[in-house]
């Protein structure tokens, strides 16, 4: 980029317009007094929890990978990996890790550009990352029910399987989203099914179901996401997603209301949660949500602040679990957030559940590891008689590292 | 397991003995290596071995200079620390994966390479390959010590003077002995360390090693020359060591352990001189020097003098008076007797300011009765003959002896004067020997060296010359073997210890010349070396420091001294600066111009040696 760009008249004009637009958006009144009062009354404080009454296990899930790692002619090779960690509460160490799922969820996925040719490889990758077949996931998940009611269309398993959205191999960003999501949710599913019996399994995402209102079309990870909810519910595990990107505008309004409610004045309030109104359950709506589907279909969403140094996060929980265990039990709800707060006191990630952070650190592929994996893939392929010259490191070949 | 072994062990064999891998080499350059290792109790100075097959089989020897606690996947430890300090109820979870690691930084001392079926040690001109495995040298494991000895044998020395064992961190590697070659005594040694760092124990170990060496040479078990050392003992420790408090006896104990024959061969005429009267004179003698042993240059070496005072003293010593006779070794008596009137009529002093003469007299005042314990008056005309232990000290030194000189009761000036005189006379005699191949000329050369030439009216050190020549003729001073003059190359390596060296080796003191400066420059040619013992490096004349080629650098008191020690060491001590600060008692860095690498050593406790 030309270094003189920022001095050009055209840039300055566009900058002025950008700031004006942002300012106008910022100044738009989002909520009225009644809504503000409703929000304020819904904000609930929980205690800074440094000790827990009843020991429990808590798992965290995260993933990484290289999407794509290499191209070979008109096909692509991706590396998907994800894993889970489990910790038990401990009065000495805070949290102690326990043995859980043995190895990271690692899959080398080769996808040819031709959609039909790629489909079996998609399904194979999904099955490998999940541990069960694609049709079993669809059959056992409650996504089908949610979709049927949300789209006003009754779907069969075969129909859903047939209409799974599978991007072409060269649509690398969508391929990455699908593979990574399935890898992570697959790791979560394994963790939920593991004999360790976690009280909580957390992962860094949301319970959003982007295609749930669409007829026929769906994403495999939507089915899997809901399967995790089903399996967790059956096993008495709380499956929750945590997203640092809550996706709401003007969060400072809520923060100020929380500060007012907590009596912290101008200081940031911490240790509070706000359950966003649930359609069909609550008699009010929060206008900040605007057109977003928050909470997602089949879920309940909370905004939570554990600590002043970490941002407000959005936590989604399976609605049926919530209805059964939390809706009418304020004490249980407080205990849940207290226990999550306890799990967020590791010195390395204060204010954020450590099992997710630990898992992130374990599973993250460094540049060197990615390079080493690329080399191993190429060497193995060449040993099978493939042409070394047709392998391309997609990112380095284009300079977009 | 040595360089000369016909079947040295392979890299794999040696590696097996090292046990579990300790860490992995992370970063490396020719300046510094970084190793990542498990969370372990470690110490600065720990030794590590890095087996490597890039090129021939090699073991790199790595020594840590820094440690740091690091976390496997945590980028900013400061954030973690801040959280621990400020966040109520924060904890550090216990992970199954090894999260708490340590990062070692340090230097490659060198590498041992196996080629032509031998392990040879090389300076650190190469680097181990990427991600080389790192093995810790476990000081408690004899098998590991054996590996280190195999790899570093050429640097450790053999058949020499034992000074201690290689130090791995805080623990010596038993059996990995560091030895100085016997010839090191004919070069110059520096022993630097602050009070309480273990210099005395180190000296005791060194002295006993010299006695061991002489014993082995005498029996033919070691093919080398004997060693002599004149060891000044300002605290009277070396003779009896801790015997008085129930501990081990010192050099006396070793001497008492000898047979009669060994005592005659290795100790006679004495091993101990003292300013007091020994209870059982024999091998322990009173320390006595004569006024006749002192020259004006000796005086200038230990006492501050002006140009005029030194010039006058030299003139009074060597120029003839009105009778045509120089005072020579009577110069001190003559000077004390020189009245103001006589001075005005004496050609040697008539043009000298009376204040200068008085100044010299004042400087010689320490020699007068009541002011000293060891100097005897020399005034043959008044019935006070030459009475000195000096000729016997020379005999002892030329026969390969350890002579301890207890200076607890003598003044600093007397102590330095004694060292100066002995060193000067030995130096002059060795030069005289080198000048004479003909036995018939040997006496002339010796007398000439001592300034005694009757034909030209130079008295010089006549009394000493007479005594020494009588000992040559009696065979006690081994300068003649049959009809051949002994070469200085056949005489023992001789070393004179200078305790509290800054007092006599500071630049101001040696401004007008010093026998020690001469010996430091030329002594090696004649087999005479100095051992400079000091708490300070900075206070010693730079010219002398540069001539020192073996250093035992112990814990030093301040940064400036440590920098000076690093700067003047005979091997590169870069990276050891921190070590000099934390070294424990008896620990030293041994550096020498004839060794490739500095060796951290621990002198054993002499009580348990």
From TrEMBL, chain A:
It comes from Luteolibacter flavescens. This is NurA domain-containing protein.
UniProtKB/TrEMBL annotation, chain B:
Transmembrane segments: none annotated. InterPro entries: HerA-like, HerA_central, P-loop_NTPase. Residues 163-423 form the Helicase HerA central domain. SUPFAM superfamilies: P-loop containing nucleoside triphosphate hydrolases. It comes from the Bacteria. Gene3D superfamilies: P-loop containing nucleotide triphosphate hydrolases. PANTHER family: HELICASE MJ1565-RELATED (PTHR42957). This is DUF87 domain-containing protein.
